[in-house]
């Protein structure tokens, strides 16, 4: 990370485009961790996701709030039992504990904010397991438990 201004936990730093720790969603989103809990004093985690058309998550919930800012592409967010269409410049906020998921309907890019930080580590650990060829359903379940993620099932038909 050549653009780092400060290196102490919670200290200032700067990342250029394309910089960040590699991360992945188990369903296939390529991600970069732009900010992690350790680097923000626990305040938040921030990920940049690059999604192919058709990428979707399962319905899940966790004990942190999550928000997305769509940079490019079209997404459908499933939040609290309702579907929402979101395009470039759109914003979605989901309070902690609310069931949600998403589907990318055209290739897209988004920022994901987790408050407080911590669960961004799930995506970093999924990436490491994928790279090692060790991402099994048991490993995924263990990682979800470690980061407070509860899988609820597939997205409903749209």
UniProtKB/TrEMBL annotation:
PANTHER family: PUTATIVE (AFU_ORTHOLOGUE AFUA_8G07350)-RELATED. Residues 56-114 form the Cupin type-2 domain. It comes from the Bacteria. Signal peptide: none annotated. InterPro entries: Cupin_2, QDO-like, RmlC-like_jellyroll, RmlC_Cupin_sf. This is Cupin type-2 domain-containing protein.
